[in-house]
Write a structure and sequence with these properties.
Blueprint (H helix, E strand, L loop, with lengths): L7 H21 L8 E11 L13 E6 L6 E4 L11 E2 L9 E6 L3 H6 L5 E6 L2 E5 L3 H25 L6
Helix pairs in contact: 1-3
């Protein structure tokens, strides 16, 4: 486990690292459709469950397997108050056998968990059936704001001699 000393330099270093991660997260979730990886194929599985998934909030997810892509896609479709709902969603209009194009990105986590949770768009022909919402950007900007707040608080604590440089 990494130990960061509780001093101004350690706090600022950790928060700058977190800001950098959030900038990367925002960038990965803010691209144009054509900038993402894509796979086109026939739907071989589409349901609200996949084995034991989802662990929580049943009904707020759809699981989609595309012929020719190694991992199933987990797609959040929750639309209740407080959910980070998609901008547009008609996944339940699709059916097994439909030919679709899924735009996504992968992380090392995708390969480890053997499920892709980073679906950005789903198209059938020239019609859109799913467009991910702004949750990635919203969360990223909130975390960056909080990091800046904590950096300023740490500087104030250092000036008050409550923490060391």
């Amino acid at each position: 486990m990494i130990s960061i000393p509780l001093n101004l330099r350690g706090i600022i270093a950790a928060l700058i690292l977190l800001i950098a991660l959030m900038v990367f997260h925002i960038q990965m979730n803010s691209k144009q459709k054509f900038e993402y990886e894509k796979t086109t194929g026939q739907i071989v599985y589409l349901d609200k469950q996949l084995g034991k998934l989802p662990i929580t909030n049943p009904g707020k997810y759809r699981y989609l397997k595309i012929q020719g892509y190694e991992f199933p896609f987990e797609i959040f479709v929750g639309n209740e108050s407080g959910d980070f709902k998609p901008k547009f969603e008609q996944i339940d209009s699709l059916k097994v056998g439909d030919n679709v194009t899924v735009f996504y990105y992968q992380t090392n986590n995708t390969k480890e968990e053997r499920i892709n949770r980073f679906t950005q768009f789903i198209d059938k022909g020239d019609k859109s059936y799913f467009e991910r919402g702004n949750s990635g950007k919203t969360v990223g900007f909130f975390v960056i704001f909080m990091c800046v707040f904590f950096i300023l608080a740490a500087i104030i604590l250092w000036k008050m001699k409550k923490i060391k440089y």
